[in-house]
Each structure stands twice: as structure tokens, then as C-alpha cells.
Amino acid sequence: MTLALEEQPDVVVMDVQMPVLDGIEATRRITAESPSVGVLVLTMSEDDGTVFAAIRAGARGYLLKGADQEEVVRAITTVAAGGAVFGPALARRIAEFFAARPGGPETAFPQLTAREREVLDLVAAGRSNAQIASALFLSPKTVRNNVSNVLAKLQVTDRAQAIVRAREAGLGR
Fold first, then answer.
1. Which label site among 26, 39, 55, 104 has the fewest CB atoms less than 10 Å from its CB?
2. What are the φ and ψ backbone dihedral angles of 148, each rounded to 5 degrees?
3. Considering only the top CATH level, what class is 2-99?
4. Do the Cβ atoms of 48 and 73 come closer than 8 Å?
């Protein structure tokens, strides 16, 4: 991250899983301090929580490590030119997320706040509280409080029941 801020490259190819500082936070810091530096995330993680966290952090591209060499080069070139690029499967999921019809995951639980819905989505995806805290840059205590609020608002007694309800509504993909 320090080198990227000093050298100001056109593109930084970033992994999500890194020692010391995870790739999402590194992306956030690089794009906040140097908006001209494009970040392309190249990782094994394809869950929606990680994809959307990377986009919110400022990544302009997201590819899975299984992408072929030509796709990676094309993505780097696109990000360097100021564009955004996502692998075909991820692009489809992003489009589905934003094109969701009423009654979809965004409106399934109107009693929940946006943050609670985001936490529920990650719970339904099988994430632990510690993983949710890391993905959303929250403290573990804040995540516990959000999970408790979700359980109360959904009137369920445990995580398993919340997961069933969330998945029926299309969350946790």
C-alpha cells in the first residue's frame, strides 16, 4: 500500500486475503488518498459480501484467480483507462442485485435497517460474526448487536431460523 501511494501506478492488482492489512481496507486507503490509482481485485473470494465490500472500498475491477491471462490483461487495461470490469459471473450477480424487483432481497425485510439487512445477508451466506466484522469493518460487539436486533425484528429464536427466512427471500447468495 505504501509503495502504491508513493509510486502512483495506473493500476494496483490487489488480493483480498493479505497479511497485516486486508485487501478491502488497503483498497479503501489507496483510493481515498489517490483517486487516480485504479484498483483491480484479483482473488479467490466470490461471495457477494466480499465483492460488494471491494466495490464500496473503491475497486474498479474484480476478477477471480481462475481468470485466464487475456482476461486479466484486458481488465488491467480497462481499469487503467478509467473503466470498470468484473468477471462475467460477477457482473451478472451485480446486475441482478441492482435490478432486483420489489419483493427481492432489498425489500424482503422492511423492518430491518440497511446495515441489519447487510449483516443478515452475510449470516445467510454462512459467515461467522468475526468474518462479518472483518468484511464490514465493524467491531465484533457491533456485529453481535446487529445480529441480536435482526433476530428480534424477524421474531426468530436463533441464527438457523434467520438463515432459513433470509434464504427464502433471496439473501445469502
1. 104
2. -60, -45
3. alpha beta
4. no
Three cell numbers written together for 57? 472500498
Question: Do residues 137 and 125 lie in contact, with contact meaning Cβ atoms separated by under 8 Å?
Answer: no
- Kindly report the number of other CB atoms within 10 A of residue 80's CB atom: 15
Here the cell at position 123 is 449470516
Could you report the per-residue pLDDT of 16-33, keeping only the tens digit for each? 888 788 888 899 999 999
Give the residue extent of every domain in the chain: 2-99, 114-168
Chain centroid offset of residue 112 CA: 19
Domain 114-168 has CATH 1.10.10.10: yes
**129 Cβ partners below 8 Å, 6+ apart?**
140, 143, 144, 147
User: CA nearest 37: which of 60, 19, 65?
Assistant: 60
Q: Which of 162, 133, 131 is nearest to 148 (CA)?
A: 162
Cell output for 69: 491471462
